[in-house]
Amino acid sequence: MRFFQSFFNAILIVLLFISQLTAQELPPIVKYGSTVYGAGNQNWMVTQDNNQFVYFANNEGLLEFNGSNWSLYPSPNETIIRSVKVVGDKIYSGCYMEFGFWKRQANGTLKYNSLSQKIKSKLIEDEHFWNIINLDHWVLFQSFNRIYVYNSKDGSFQFIDNHPYIFRCYKINNSIYFQAVGEGFYEVVNGKSVLVCDDDRIKTNRIVEVYKHKDGLLFQTERAGVFKLEDKILTPFYFESESELKPNSIFCAKMLSDGGFALGTISNGIFILDKQGKTRYHITQNSGLSNNTILSINEDDDNNLWLGLDNGIDCINLQSPIKSYKDDSGFLGTVYASIKFKDKIYVGTNQGLFSKSALTNEGFSLVNGTKGQVWTLFEYDNQLFCGHDLGTFLIGQTGISLIYKQSGTWKFNSLPNRPNIMLQGNYNGISVLEKKNGSWAFRNKIEGFDISSRYFEVDNKNEIYVGHEYKGIIKVTANADFSKAKKFEVLKSPSKGKHISLAKYNGTIYYAGRSGIFRLNAKTGSFEKDHNLSSILKNNEYISGKLNVDKSNKMWFFTKNYIYYFTSGNFDKGLKKHKISIPFSITNPMIGYENITQISDNEYFVGKTDGYFIINLSDFRVKTHNIILTEVSVNKLSQPLVNLSISEVGELSHDENNLIFNYTVPQYNRFIDVEYQYMLEGQQGQWSEWSAKSSINFKNLEPGDYTFKVRAKIANSLPGNIVEYKFTILKPWYATNLAWLVYLLLFITMAYYINKAYRNYYRKQEEKLIEENNLLLEIAALENEQQLMKLRNEQLSQDVDAKNRELAVSTMSLIKKNELLNIIKEDLKKSSEENSGRNIKSVISTINRNITEDDSWNVFKEAFDNADKDFLKKIKAAHPSLTPSDLKLCAYLRLNLSSKEIAPMLNISIRSVEIKRYRLRKKLNLLHDDGLANYILSV
Length: 939
Fold this sequence. Notes:
- By secondary structure, the chain is an alpha+beta fold.
- It has 14 helices and 64 strands.
- A hairpin with a 4-residue loop joins strand 4 (about 60-65) and strand 5.
């Protein structure tokens, strides 16, 4: 059992090794799934028009892609479109029992015109049209039963039939051929089929494609390989990759513009061969395709290879300057460093150090003894140094040697004017390597500095600058022989940060971090921000500050959307910026450990977390493409969009003031970005910012004349053509010149009538004013009368008050008189009792007559009636049970007299007055809390 397990593991190792040997560096592949293009899964044929728009015969209809947007035009009879071909300005298509052409209308959309309806009665039942080819003004629609030859000049048809099974027709130069399965290979001559070859191998093997080859033809069959027909003699023809191709079933094929071949298989992806038939690429679903079944192939004007798949659409950028290798097996691991050294390419990963020949296509293999994390690779003195987690390795042609193992090694740097000494940054500081007797060895660690030194650079004064993510930049001053650090300090600027780095370029030390790119001022010893280089970090482009300097004297930097490299300026010390449109999501390196190295004159090796890719800078040639205005649509509020004519000046109503412009540059390279800039004359007078968005929406435009302009730049190229579209938004009817004339007439008329109305108004106002003045005079007279009456009333009130005062005075006089007489009377009584004189009694009698109650009452009543005539009547009417004595008491209380003041008036005691008051309350039915005096005063 253990033997079988060991054997199985060995087989796996061998297979893994073989997979590395056959690993491919593939061109970029752009994938379009059905959810992206919004149509069916299967795509049976591909073609391209003069605008470089691409069309697909899709299960759901005709599918169009202009580089920015997908458009689906449903099949005319709701069946699968099997074939499509662009001929001039028409797009011919064929489906079940139907064929015709699509033509672009003025508004930019396609409209279908049926041709088969003209000969509907001649169609064969249950017929599918699988292929379309053209020659001059003839268009051929091929089904398995017949070939329909359409004359585009006069609209007539010819038929090529009498063959039970026509598999496919082909156009080679100016000749038309077709294969009749079971019969042979035919050429169409003067509208008739002429047998070219009836070899049994041709009769029984279906021919997928026919290639032109020198003086003969090459037949690409489904399963029997390739045959060559020359001078009517059929012989086998073998590609160099015949053994690799033989097991596959070929469904479609295409001869490429460079003389190579593309073979689409049923279940094994696509083979791309060179002129000799040697496999350049074999791409399957495992290596990047969306699907392994290739239904159709077409090469576009930019040499991109379009694949119609059983499930989706792929575009292979064959001419792309970028080739990538994806390490799906995990054999390599994450690439941290790379270098070309003596015809070998070395790659340092988290798995170890790997190497391969730079002259062959073999895969990488592990360098024995280097398993583990590799941090850096450095070439110096014709030696290769490897910074490893275990320490420092010296890599030789025959083996490796570990020359330092006290600590892991981050980085190496040589020293100016000291060729036999080299510094290395370690986990615990900086140490020195020295060359003695022709061999490099560890000499010493710089004492007094134990900080991890992943990034460090040495200036011309032998000052060491260490970049530390958590501390910032540390300046270390060592003694002359680098045995000890005399001092070190942390610089205040630039600030610390994650993924910072240092690099030396053209003798200047550069720092890069989130805050920008800085360079060391050799005179001041401080870092100063380079605003020109830091501008690449605008718009949140920063990912990592890792700087890479290569052998060709380029300094590389990775951002979110680009890879930049800097080169020396022509006339000043400033650096020139160059950018490659490869986003970080595609480069996919380990953040903070981005690495790139030159492996040939113009080829650069870039490490990734799952493999690597190779950039060829000399192939970064951008082909000129024109920008195309594809659609102008307008809508009213809450109404659907309406497409306008693109070729004519637009004239829109005032409420059609919401416009959408769609434009595109039909280029399909994955790593070339297109940016657009627009301007709307009449609203804005300057170009917008560059944007990747291929549409713009203008809302609520004011009436007026407008010119929309748009231009594009591809990669870093200057803008090419400018597309213009002129349109006018009309004024509403109520703002036209005629309306203004009507408004003027109405205004004059209204002014006349308003003037007339105002005159009548002011006349009436005048009359009204006179009338109001008269009324005011009358009112003033009435007010005067009222004033007189008021004065009279005041006079009467004053008279009443005077009489009341007289009444009060009179009453008080009577009270005082009676009091005096009572005093005298009492005194006389005392005297009469003592003397018993008759004369005194006579005087007392006289006094009694003068203080009789009736006399006092009569005097008081007369005065009270003059002052308050209605009171006694009112209270008598309210309380009929009141006696004259009660009325007297009420009258005295009305004058607000106290019981003490009332007693002499009634000639009774104060106690008797209180009793009378109590009885009066009972008669008046007053409550306990009601005041008697208050009630009398309120009557």
